[in-house]
Design goal:
This protein has 5 helices and 9 strands, in the order E-H-E-E-E-E-E-H-E-H-E-E-H-H. The protein is α/β, with parallel strands linked by helices.
């Protein structure tokens, strides 16, 4: 069963965090919220308070099959200074086909900042966030699956992104069933 570590920082975009974890848990995936802050409690971009399952410094990332970075202003906190354990893990494991790296909105920029996007990996991100570091890997699409990376362009795609992950890791039928049950 797929185990997803969801990285959470202060100012993470609310919808990009809550919607995917809700859909993934409905699908039966194991989802754990990991605060990159010093405490488990974080305040999201629009004031929502979240209590994470664990803090990054106490978590073993190698027990997960996927790492998910939601966007929002909080994505800027997923850096070597504030989350060295996350960055070091990603730089060591990004070519491991057993670990999927997922991000939405501006968070795929982290992959470029961490230098884990080789020339063959394509990603999408929020169009206004495209910069020189990511432009060679960027494709203007809603959702992109490339090697062991899954990315989505923005908050309005949170549900579609989450269902795509269910399709990829469980089955298209499971995603279809969930969509029907959720009146999507």
């Amino acid at each position: 069963m797929l185990k997803i570590a969801v990285m959470v920082a202060n100012q993470t975009e609310d919808i990009e965090l809550v919607v995917p974890i809700d859909i993934w848990r409905r699908a039966g995936l194991i989802v754990k919220l990991v605060s990159i802050e010093k405490k488990k409690n974080v305040i999201l971009n629009h004031g929502t308070k979240i209590s994470c399952d664990e803090v990054l410094n106490k978590e073993n990332l190698s027990k997960y099959n996927a790492i998910f970075l939601p966007g929002g202003a909080g994505h800027q906190r997923f850096n070597k200074e504030l989350a060295p354990k996350l960055v070091t893990f990603a730089q060591k494991e990004y070519k491991n086909p057993k670990i999927t790296f997922m991000a939405i909105c501006a968070a795929p920029l982290c992959f470029a900042d961490w230098n884990i996007l080789d020339n063959n990996v394509k990603v999408t991100c929020y169009p206004d966030a495209v910069n020189a570091k990511i432009e060679d890997n960027y494709v203007k699409q809603d959702i992109v699956i490339s090697k062991n990376f899954i990315t989505a362009a923005g908050p309005g795609l949170a549900s579609n992104f989450a269902f795509k992950v269910v399709e990829e890791f469980i089955s298209p039928n499971k995603a279809k069933e969930l969509k029907k049950r959720m009146l999507f």
